Amino acid sequence: MTGLSRTRPHIAEYPLERFLNMERSAFDENEVFAVILNTGILEPISAELIESEDGLILMVTVEEKWAFFPLPLILTGSGGTSYGLFLVDTNAFGVRDTIALGGIYSSEGWSAVLVYNHTPSRSGLPGWNSMFMYSRQEVKDVDRDEVVHRRYVTDQLRLSVGLNYPFMEFFSGSFAVSFSDISLNNNDVLNPPESGAAYFGFNLGLSLRRSGWDGFFLSQQSFSLGFNYNHVISGSSFFQIDFRGVYEQPLIPGLRLNIRSGGVWKSTSNPLFEEGQQRAQVSILPQDYSALHYTGISVGLEKSLFKTSWGMLSVKGSWQAVFSHGLISGFEFNHGPSGEIQFYLSRLALPAIGGGIAYNMNSGLYQINFSLGMSF
Question: How far is CA 49 from CA 15, 30, 63, 227, 345, in A?
Answer without folding.
Answer: 17, 13, 19, 44, 28
